[in-house]
# Entry
Amino acid sequence: MPDNLCQNKLMKKLIISFCLMSSLFVNASFVEIEVTDISQEGILHLAIYNSKETFESDKGDKPGPQEGIVGGVVEFVEKGIYKGKFELPDGIYAIGLYVDSNKNEKLDTNFFSIPKEQFGFSNNAKGRFGPPSFESASFELDGYKEISINLK
# Structure
């Protein structure tokens, strides 16, 4: 009898563990990002923001993790198209990216602060004199979303 009791307890633990693990995967949301029109190879700096302040103040001069950036990638890309898939909690996000063609870890600009390297934003949002607002680039993620960004 003790063996049956141990087996029953083990089965209950396995079932509970399976249910908990399954619930984690059910609540996962995914965003698939396609970046098109990459005209030069370089280092892609792609950031997924959940903070209006961080998004609107980021000048592309601080690569790496920052508060308000919840996902992204820094990796070499060739001419053409980049595709990536990211798992995030449900929420409101915006994406900003640039291709660092000279590999100096910053977005190069000219005298008038106009980017000399390719860049883009979610919703293909555009700003007047600088980056677009968080509101114009933001999207709601609730389950699954595909985003296509055309580089400028």
Strands lie at 29-38, 42-49, 69-77, 80-88, 91-100, 119-121, 139-141, 144-150. The CA atoms of residues 48 and 121 lie 10 Å apart. The chain is about 25% helix and 40% strand. Residues 29-150 form one domain.
